[in-house]
C-alpha cells in the first residue's frame, strides 16, 4: 500500500512530502526529490523491513537515516493516524497510491480490498477536511483502467462508461466518485488519474508481467524449466511506471482539477509479452494445444517452458483494455516515452541480473 504527500515549501527550497514503498511510490519519490520536494511516505508496520524499493533514497541507506524523504507509520484503514499525519505534515500535494492492487486476489480479499481501496480514499479525503486543508491541498487519486472492465467502447477515454469486473475495480469505482464528490461539494483540488497498466522491474513478483520476466530469467540461467500462466489472450495497454508518475505530477500542476486517462494507446497480449521476453534471451516459443491444454515449447530445444493453469483465471475476465490519452497529450503535454519492446527488455535484463546474484529472490 502506498500514499505520498508533498508538504508546503518551508523557507528553503525543499518541499516536504510523504509516501509508501510501493513501486509507483518509489518512482514518484525519486521524481519529486529531484524536483526539490521533501518526501513523506506512509508505511505499514511489519516485522521485517518493507522498504526495499526506496532504500536508496535514504540519506544513509545502511542505517536507514532519513534525509529529504521521511517515513511515517500509518494505514489507510486507520482514520486517526491519517488525521495525525496530515495535520503534522500539512502537505500541499497528496498522492494516494495506496491499494490492495492485485485484481485476482481481490476476489479472495473482497472486503479488505473495498476497505482499503474504496473507504481508504474516503478516509484520506475526510482527513484533509478535518485538518482544514481543503483550500491548500491538491489531491491525486490513483484510479485504474480496471474501471472499464467489460469495455463499452474502444479505445477507452475519460467519457467512456465504467463497467468494473472485479472487487478491485468496484472498490476503485467508489474511490473515483468520492473524489469527484469532494471536488464538487467542497471545491477541493482533487483529480483521478485513470492509469492503464504500467510496469517496471519493481513490479510485484505475483503480477503477470513480472512473473513472466522473472521466470524467463530463471530459465535463461538454468534455475527453472517451466512456469504456468492464466489467460494468454488477455490484451492490455502496457506502459512504463516512470512515464506514468510524471503524468501524476503534471495533473496537480494545472490551474483546474480534471481527470485524465494515461495510456500508450498500444495493445499487446500476455502471449506476446511471453514471446518477446523469450526472444530477448534467444529462444523462440511455439504454441501447441488449446485452452487449458496449451503449452509454449522452445523451438530450439523442444522443451516446454509455459503451461496454462485455470487457477490463474479470474471469475470474470477483462479481455481487452486500450486507452486514449489524447486529453493528457493536449492539456498536460504528456507523452509515453518507453516502448513496449524496451519495457520487456528492461524487465528481463533486470531479473536476469537479480537471479544471477540471488537465485532465491
From TrEMBL:
Enzyme Commission numbers on file: 4.2.1.47
EC main group: lyase
Residue span(s) of domain NAD(P)-binding: 24-347
Database matches in Pfam families: GDP_Man_Dehyd
Keywords: Lyase, NADP
Family to which this protein belongs: Belongs to the NAD(P)-dependent epimerase/dehydratase family. GDP-mannose 4,6-dehydratase subfamily.
Function, as annotated: Catalyzes the conversion of GDP-D-mannose to GDP-4-dehydro-6-deoxy-D-mannose.
This protein's name: GDP-mannose 4,6 dehydratase
Species of provenance: Alligator sinensis (Chinese alligator)
Amino acid at each position: 500500500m502506498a500514499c505520498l504527500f508533498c508538504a508546503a515549501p518551508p523557507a528553503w527550497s525543499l518541499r516536504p512530502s510523504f509516501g509508501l514503498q510501493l513501486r509507483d511510490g518509489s518512482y514518484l519519490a525519486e521524481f519529486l526529490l529531484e524536483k526539490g520536494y521533501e518526501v513523506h511516505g506512509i508505511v505499514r508496520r511489519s516485522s521485517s523491513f518493507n522498504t526495499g524499493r526506496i532504500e536508496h533514497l535514504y540519506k544513509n541507506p545502511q542505517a536507514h537515516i532519513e534525509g529529504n524523504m521521511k517515513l511515517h507509520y500509518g494505514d489507510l484503514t486507520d482514520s486517526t493516524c491519517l488525521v495525525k499525519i496530515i495535520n503534522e505534515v500539512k502537505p500541499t500535494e497528496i498522492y494516494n497510491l495506496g491499494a490492495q492492487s492485485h485484481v485476482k486476489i481481490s476476489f479472495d480479499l473482497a472486503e479488505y480490498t473495498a476497505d482499503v481501496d474504496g473507504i481508504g480514499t474516503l478516509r484520506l479525503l475526510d482527513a484533509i477536511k478535518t485538518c482544514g486543508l481543503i483550500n491548500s491541498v491538491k489531491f491525486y487519486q490513483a484510479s485504474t483502467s480496471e474501471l472499464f472492465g467489460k469495455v463499452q467502447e474502444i479505445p477507452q477515454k475519460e467519457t467512456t462508461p465504467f463497467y468494473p469486473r472485479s472487487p478491485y475495480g468496484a472498490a476503485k469505482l467508489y474511490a473515483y466518485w468520492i473524489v469527484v464528490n469532494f471536488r464538487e461539494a467542497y471545491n477541493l483540488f482533487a483529480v483521478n488519474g485513470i492509469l492503464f497498466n504500467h510496469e517496471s522491474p519493481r513490479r510485484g513478483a505475483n503480477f503477470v508481467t513480472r512473473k513472466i520476466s522473472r521466470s524467463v530469467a530463471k530459465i535463461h540461467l538454468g534455475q527453472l524449466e517451466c512456469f504456468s500462466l492464466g489467460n494468454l489472450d488477455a490484451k492490455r495497454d502496457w506502459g512504463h511506471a516512470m512515464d506514468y508518475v510524471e503524468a501524476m505530477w503534471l495533473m496537480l500542476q494545472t490551474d483546474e482539477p480534471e481527470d485524465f486517462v494515461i495510456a500508450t494507446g498500444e495493445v499487446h497480449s500476455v502471449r506476446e509479452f511471453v514471446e518477446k521476453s523469450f526472444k530477448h534471451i534467444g529462444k523462440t516459443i511455439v504454441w501447441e494445444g488449446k485452452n487449458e491444454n496449451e503449452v509454449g515449447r522452445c523451438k530450439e530445444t523442444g522443451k516446454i517452458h509455459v503451461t496454462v493453469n485455470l487457477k490463474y483465471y479470474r471469475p470474470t475476465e477483462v479481455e481487452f483494455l486500450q486507452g486514449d490519452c489524447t486529453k493528457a497529450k493536449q492539456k498536460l503535454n504528456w507523452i509515453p516515452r518507453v516502448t513496449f519492446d524496451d519495457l520487456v527488455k528492461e524487465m528481463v535484463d533486470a531479473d536476469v541480473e537479480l537471479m544471477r546474484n540471488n537465485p532465491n529472490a
